[in-house]
Amino acid sequence: MNAYELADDVKNISNTIEALEWVQKATPLLRQQADRIKELEDRLSMYEIKDLDKPQIKELSDEEILELADKHLIIETEYIGMGDYVDTVKGEIQFARAILKKANEK
Fold first, then answer.
1. At what angle do helices 92-105 and 62-72 cross, to 10 degrees?
2. What integer pLDDT is reported at residue 55 of this predicted model?
3. Where would you tag: which of 1, 5, 16, 82 has the fewest CB atoms within 10 A of its CB?
4. Whole-angstrom distance, CA of residue 26 vs CA of residue 38
5. CA 39, CA 42: separation in Å to the nearest integer?
6. Other C-beta atoms within 10 Å of 32: how many?
């Protein structure tokens, strides 16, 4: 029997004997559930719970981002003819990794 069936059975109690029989069925189930809740609480306490009032998003200042861009991004300008140039940016992956690393250090 589970808790839902036990809850449904309570609707069918019409006398004292049926009430006592229901209590006899409910008692071990309630103890089992209490033990399970305690086990789950113990497991949960093993994990460090972070301060939920503090924002978990770590932000970098514009200056920090620009410093990382200068260090990791390479802009190559290529002449494509008729007075036109095109810029190619390289190092985006390294730049992204550097931003993530810097933010995680905060």
1. 140
2. 63
3. 82
4. 18
5. 5
6. 11
Could you report the per-residue pLDDT of 54-74, keeping only the tens digit for each? 667 788 999 999 999 999 999
> Please, are residues 1 and 25 in contact by the beta-carbon 8 Å criterion?
yes
Among 46, 65, 48, residue whose Cα is nearest residue 106: 65
Which residues in 1-106 belong to E strands, given as ranges? 74-81, 84-90
Q: Which two tokens stand for residue 69?
A: 């861009």
- DSSP classification of residue 54: S
Would the pTM count as exceeding 0.70? Answer: no
CA distance 24 to 32: 13
